[in-house]
Structure formats: C-alpha cells, structure tokens
C-alpha cells in the first residue's frame, strides 16, 4: 500500500480526527466533572458550616432549658446557700448522666469562689458574675483546654430577693458525634496554638503547633492529620480544595474557627472521605483513554458503525453536564440514557454514563437538603424574633384556616386583642433594652396561662393577640381574660427596678362576631379601646351596641379631667 494513497491518507486523517475528538471529549468530561466536584465540595462545606452553627445553637438552647428546669425545680422558697448546695448535691449525678454536663458552678456573689460540682473548668471573673446578675442576661462562651466545653452562665433569682449565677459546662463531644451522625463526615477539634503538647505528645501536630483534643475515628484519622500537617504549614480553610491521598483513600481536610476564638484559637477540623468522587473521575478518564485507543485501532474496519454512537452518547453527556449546575436533573438523565446491561459488560461510555448519573443523584440529594434548610428558614420567618411567639403573619394564617374550615361545632373560638397600658412611659424609663426584656416577660406570662394548642402571637410593638379554640359559650372566656390580667400585673424585675404593667383586652367571639379576618380584628380593636376607656387593666367583650372608635374618641375628648368610669369588667 502506497503511503500517498487516498486510503492511507483517509486512514491517517481519520485516525488524527478520532484522536482529536477523543481528546476533546476527555478534556471536556474531565473539566465538567472537576467543576461539578468542586461545586459539590463547596456546597457540602457550606452545609457543614451551617450544621456546626445549628448544633451549637441547639446545645445552647438545651443548656437554657436545663437552667430553666433547675430554676423551676427549686424546693421551697428558701434561697440560702446551704439549701441550694443540698439541692444540687442531690441532683448532680442525674444532671451529669442525663444532660452530659462536665461541671456545674453556683456563684452566690462576685466575692466568693463558686460551689463546684464535677470537674472544674474555667470560672467566671468577678466582673462577669456582676454583669450576669445586673443585666439578667445569659453569658455564653466556648473554651478548650483538656477538652472543649460550651459554658453558659445564667442568672437565677430565688426567694428573699437573692440572686445567684448558675454556670453549666457541657463538653462538645456530643456535638461532634451528632455532626457525624447527620452528615456522615468526621470532625474534630484542635486546640489553640501551643509551643508544646499539654496532654499527649502523640496528639500534637508539630508543624501547626496545635494539639488534637477531640476527633471522631481518631485511630484512623489522627495519622492522616499528622501527614497533612507535615505537608503544609498553614491550616487548610473552608476554601481549600485539595484532597489528600492516605492508605488508598482520598480525604478533604478543612478547618473552621471555634466561635469566640481568633486565628490562633481552637478550630474545628472536618475530614470528609471523597474517595468515591475521585475514583469516579479517575475511572471516567481511564475509560475515555481506553476507548480512544480502541476506537483508533478499529476505525479502519467499521469507522462509522463503531464511532458514531459513542460520539453521540458523549455529546449527550456533554450536554447533560451543564444541566446539572442548573438543577435540571430529569433532563440530564434523559440525555445520558445508559444502556441496560450488567456492569460486568460495561464499556467505557457506560462507565462514564454511570458516573454522570451518580453525580446527578448526589447533586439532587444535596439540592433536597438545601430545600429543606430553606423551608426551615421560612418556618423561622413565622415567629417573632424578640419573644419567640407567633408573629402577625402566623396568627393571620391560623385565623384564616379556622375561618375557611367552617367547622364551629365543638365550641366558640375567641380572639383576645391585648395591648399594654402606658408602655411608652415604661419603655422611656427603662430604655429600649429594658422594654424588650419586659415584652419577653409579658410573652412568657401569657403563654403560661394558655392551654396546649392555643396560639399567643405578638403583632408588633406592645400589641399581642391570643387565639383560643373551642371554649364553652358560658363565660369561660372571662376566666381566661382575668388570668391574663392577673398574671401580667404581677411585678417584674427589669434590671435594678421593679416594674408593674397592666393590660387592656378586647375579646371577640368567633363566628358570632365575624367570619372574616378583617372584621374580627377590627371588632377586637374596638373592644380593646373600650377596655382602655373604662379605666385600663380590664377586658371587654365586643357587642353590637358598642360605639365605634371615632365615637369613643369624641367621648374621651368630652370626658372631664379626673373622671373615673366605674364599670364591671364583663360584657
């Protein structure tokens, strides 16, 4: 065969063309898969960062709940030190076993050392004790020494005007285990920068000058951290995108600071096994290379029959990969369309299709997780950030559901429109922070007199709303309104002052006084203003013969100064 023949030229040209096309698709596939892997890595670690933050918040809520339970569970009204010490002596073992506490400290004042139960960790400074007592706010901190501890100091008021500070210390070990259970990835904590190991020399990462103080799967992952620390001097942050091979596997190692610590403070270490993703990409590249060699060897025999369909499948895969970044997973799967056969009979394109489908499934799962987190944020938007109660949007939706349901057989529903009397003067005297504290106390007291299923909401400012379903129509609403008036009227300590506020309540029966949301709120507002007009600290049930707000304003303008209208607080 002559070298200058058309067949030779065609063969050489076809060979070069096939090689060029295969190289093109190899590079395209590798670039797309690497891009998807990097996007998957970034999304995953953003999720991890959110999970750590969420777990810390949940742990703080647990400690606050425990502090509330301890405060509520005091026996008797005596608040002397000996009584408190006996109380915690009895309960310490239960608290440690049930709540995972490392230690518990009780500060009687800022001049005496605290009473300590468990292994004592860092204690509060005298000025911190005074700050907690004076402000009435909890103080949270995280400190790492031998172990990492989340510490929460809360004020506790007891009988006789005594005030204590209760400090709860809880190990972060439970948080690490919960993170691993939720995400499937390992996590640990390295201590702040130290010149030498504090506990175990084998746990000290010399290049980073840090000691590993907690780590899930420590026997497997501690050697990996030693290798990573030896290979690079700087701690890998969340934006670090290099994986580390270790004992036949590939791992991502990233760190994020423990809240409250600086760059030299303790850090979380997240170790994620990415071997499957790396193996998928490597297999895809190997398969593409092998396919290129086979195609080049067989082109002289059946160029069109052998290469046309694989090229078409590769083109579909190339078109499907950008769809993954847009979230069009079904469209991407319809483009990939793997051939139905046993994995032992897979060719190179089949493996690439399988890899593409696997990446598609993983991204779809991650999108579902993000959607669930978005739904959680939407749920948070339904509650008032200051008091934790339902907000205006929430109570409006509940009323609309109840009204649209139209099932009023079980009893009468009532809407209590609550407004604090003279709140502006109280807010001006206490300051905005004191006013916010007072609103939180009022919210807690309103909730305390409600049944399970009743809804207490804050509409805004000093206005609250209580929606109660299925009350008997025999005046039971009076008892509930009187309870609200009584419990809120109890004096409350805000800072160094004792404050007493009262309520004016407008009551509307549903559906007797309205079957639309606008009508009910309007009539509740009228009834509330009548309660204020009648002397405040009262409630008023709406009736059809009540004058409107404009007529009530005219009556207030004509009312002589100092006149007191005495009337029964019923309907």
From TrEMBL:
Domain of life: Bacteria
Matching InterPro entries: dCache_3, DGC-Regulatory_Protein, GGDEF_dom, Nucleotide_cyclase, Rev_trsase/Diguanyl_cyclase
Transmembrane feature ranges: 287-308
Top-rank EC class of the record's enzyme: transferase
Keywords: Membrane, Nucleotidyltransferase, Transferase, Transmembrane, Transmembrane helix
EC number(s) per entry: 2.7.7.65
GO molecular function, one term: diguanylate cyclase activity
Domain GGDEF, residue spans: 411-544
Protein name, entry field: Diguanylate cyclase
Taxonomic classification: Bacteria, Pseudomonadati, Pseudomonadota, Gammaproteobacteria, Cellvibrionales
């Amino acid at each position: 065969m002559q070298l200058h023949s058309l067949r030779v030229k065609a063969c050489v040209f076809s060979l070069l063309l096939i090689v060029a096309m295969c190289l093109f698709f190899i590079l395209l596939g590798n670039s797309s898969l690497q891009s998807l892997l990097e996007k998957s890595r970034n999304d995953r670690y953003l999720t991890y960062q959110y999970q750590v933050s969420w777990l810390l918040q949940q742990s703080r809520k647990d400690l606050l709940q425990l502090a509330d339970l301890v405060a509520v569970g005091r026996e008797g009204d005596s608040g002397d030190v000996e009584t408190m010490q006996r109380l915690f002596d009895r309960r310490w073992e239960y608290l440690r076993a049930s709540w995972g506490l490392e230690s518990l400290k009780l500060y009687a004042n800022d001049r005496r050392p605290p009473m300590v139960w468990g292994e004592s960790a860092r204690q509060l400074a005298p000025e911190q004790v005074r700050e907690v007592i004076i402000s009435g706010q909890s103080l949270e901190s995280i400190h790492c020494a031998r172990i990492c501890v989340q510490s929460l100091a809360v004020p506790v008021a007891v009988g006789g005007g005594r005030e204590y500070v209760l400090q709860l210390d809880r190990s972060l070990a439970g948080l690490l285990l919960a993170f691993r259970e939720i995400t499937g990835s390992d996590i640990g904590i390295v201590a702040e920068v130290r010149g030498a190991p504090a506990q175990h020399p084998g746990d000290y990462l010399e290049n980073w000058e840090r000691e590993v103080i907690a780590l899930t799967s420590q026997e497997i992952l501690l050697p990996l951290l030693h290798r990573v620390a030896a290979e690079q001097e700087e701690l890998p942050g969340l934006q670090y995108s290099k994986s580390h091979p270790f004992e036949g596997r590939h791992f991502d190692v990233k760190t994020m600071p423990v809240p409250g610590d600086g760059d030299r403070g303790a850090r979380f270490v997240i170790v994620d096994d990415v071997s499957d993703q790396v193996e998928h990409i490597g297999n895809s590249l190997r398969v593409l290379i092998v396919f290129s060699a086979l195609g080049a060897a067989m082109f002289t025999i059946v160029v069109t029959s052998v290469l046309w369909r694989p090229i078409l499948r590769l083109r579909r895969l190339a078109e499907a990969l950008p769809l993954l970044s847009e979230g069009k997973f079904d469209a991407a799967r319809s483009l990939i369309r793997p051939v139905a056969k046993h994995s032992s009979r897979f060719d190179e394109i089949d493996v690439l299709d399988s890899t593409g489908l696997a990446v598609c499934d993983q991204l779809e799962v991650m999108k579902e997780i993000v959607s669930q987190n978005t739904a959680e944020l939407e749920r948070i938007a339904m509650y008032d950030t200051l008091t934790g109660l339902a907000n205006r949007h929430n109570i409006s939706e509940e009323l609309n559901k109840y009204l649209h349901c139209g099932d009023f057989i079980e009893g009468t529903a009532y809407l209590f429109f609550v407004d604090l009397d003279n709140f502006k003067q109280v807010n001006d005297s206490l300051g905005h922070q004191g006013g916010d504290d007072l609103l939180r106390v009022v919210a807690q007291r309103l909730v305390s007199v409600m049944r399970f299923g009743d809804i207490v909401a804050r509409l805004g400012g000093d206005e609250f709303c209580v929606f109660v379903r299925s009350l008997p129509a025999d005046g039971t609403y009076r008892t509930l309104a009187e309870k609200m008036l009584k419990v809120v009227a109890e004096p409350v300590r805000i800072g160094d002052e004792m404050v007493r506020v009262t309520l004016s309540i407008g009551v509307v029966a549903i559906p007797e006084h309205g079957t639309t949301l606008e009508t009910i709120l309007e009539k509740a507002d009228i009834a509330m203003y009548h309660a204020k007009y009648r002397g405040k600290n009262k409630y008023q049930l709406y009736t059809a013969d009540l004058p409107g707000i404009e007529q009530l304003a005219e009556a207030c303008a004509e009312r002589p100064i100092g006149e007191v209208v005495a009337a029964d607080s019923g309907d």
